[in-house]
Write a structure and sequence with these properties.
By secondary structure, this protein is α/β, with parallel strands linked by helices. The protein has 14 helices and 17 strands. Helix 10 links the parallel strand 8 and strand 9.
């Protein structure tokens, strides 16, 4: 007699079966499911918010940090935004079946690539309930089944959202089992998922460094890692200082608890005296705590009502996820590039400059998923990049890099059309 399967085994098996049908599901059916999900998120807002309040209260009781609580929180406005993202994904072209790089060989063979789903995607994530929706809708639209395993800190919220997604999509014609949610918070199930390479084709972890490293080191299947963002903004000697103030303010303050927020501000020595008092005053008004190297400290420490401290070695290369920033004065673009190379995480890096040559050097030499000229790093986001939503932000180089949307959840197969050709 075979032992009974646990929750992960049962749901993974169902997802694998559903993926076979989902891979060829008509675009109209997938879009119908997404529009239905968008409507049902709004219709079930009270239920979702009630579940989220349970998670939030438990998080506060457990001493969760302000950054984590902000990621956990759902509001009516955030649900409206999530619903809008679902509609945006529905409006995007369906990548499945796209034929590209078609050519005819001298022997008459017609060769092309056709985009196909990956199969079953496992998502292991922490804190942010919106991830439940983002990953589900992107997987559905790209023809992939999905297995969702969120953290215990958001279990009520994720469960409520998953039920809405499942009910809406199945009623619209999506194969039963295409969206699976693991209700158990037993951590042992994560380790089990990571060994199921016969049924799970890709694992996407989203959360802190500990989770991401654990998944990367223990998964038997392909993993896309990322999300840890140590993001720099460098203000060059030729920068338009009005732009530089607005960009650095937005990158740090607009939403400080996310991975694409500014962590370290690098300022060229030639503009430090004029620029640093301006940005420090703006940041100070927003409550930003500034950890400054000696040169920056000498310039702004006498300004009133600022949270300014001397930087230690630990602040360089640190992802703050809070209203905290490190400031360093550098003597050249070369010094800025060296600092970013040593301390950056490969996420998002920006230069503010009016010098075309400096901008091109920065774009060419900085090794990161997203590199900006004269813009805030806060744009590193699937929705802002026109992807509708994102499964995550990859800081690795294979198979995807940066915000992962629909096409990043597909692979391709070679299509070869002949007329009796044989190899000589």
């Amino acid at each position: 007699m075979q032992p009974a399967m646990n929750e992960v085994e049962v749901k993974t098996k169902a997802a694998k079966a559903a993926s076979k049908k989902l891979a060829y599901l008509a675009t109209d059916t997938k879009n119908k499911a997404l529009f239905s999900i968008a409507d049902e998120l709004i219709a079930n807002e009270k239920t979702i918010l009630a579940a989220n309040r349970l998670d939030y209260a438990e998080g506060e009781k457990a001493g969760m940090s302000a950054a984590m609580l902000d990621r956990l929180l759902l509001t009516s406005e955030r649900i409206q935004a999530i619903s809008s993202d679902v509609r945006n994904v529905a409006a995007l072209p369906d990548p499945v079946g796209e034929t590209f790089e078609m050519r005819t060989l001298p022997n008459g063979l017609q060769i092309s690539k056709r985009r196909v789903p990956l199969g079953v995607i496992g998502a292991i994530y922490e804190s942010r309930p919106n991830v439940t929706v983002d990953i589900s809708i992107l997987c559905l639209k790209s023809g992939n089944a999905v297995i969702l395993r969120g953290g215990k800190e958001a279990i009520h919220s994720n469960s409520a959202l998953a039920k809405v997604i499942q009910n809406a999509s199945y009623q619209a014609g999506v194969p039963q089992g295409a969206v699976q949610f693991i209700e158990s918070t037993d951590r042992a199930l994560v380790g089990q998922m990571l060994k199921m390479r016969d049924t799970i084709d890709l694992i996407v972890p989203r959360g802190g460094a500990e989770l991401i490293n654990y998944v990367a080191q223990n998964a038997a299947m392909s993993v896309v890692t990322g999300g840890i963002g140590v993001c720099h903004t460098y203000v060059d000697s030729s920068a338009d200082l009005d732009k530089a103030v607005a960009i650095a303010y937005n990158a740090k303050v607009q939403r400080p608890t996310v991975c694409n927020a500014l962590d370290t501000l690098l300022v060229h020595a030639n503009v430090a005296q004029s620029y640093l008092p301006r940005i420090a005053t703006e940041w100070g008004g927003a409550g930003v705590e500034m950890h400054c190297d000696q040169r920056a400290l000498e310039i702004i420490q006498t300004l009133p009502s600022l949270k300014v401290v001397s930087a230690n070695d630990e602040v360089w290369g640190k992802e703050f996820l809070a209203l905290v920033a490190a400031i360093k004065v550098v003597g050249s673009l070369d010094e800025a590039l060296e600092h970013i190379e040593y301390y950056g995480s490969g996420h998002s890096e920006a230069i503010v400059t009016e010098d075309y040559a400096a901008a091109m050097r920065f774009l060419n030499e900085v090794d990161a998923a997203c590199v900006y000229v004269n813009a805030s790093t806060r744009f590193t986001d699937g929705g802002q990049f026109g992807l509708g939503a994102e499964v995550g932000i990859s800081t690795q180089k294979l198979h995807a890099r940066g915000p992962m949307g629909l096409k990043e959840l597909t692979t391709y197969k070679w299509i070869v059309l002949g007329n009796g050709q044989v190899r000589p």
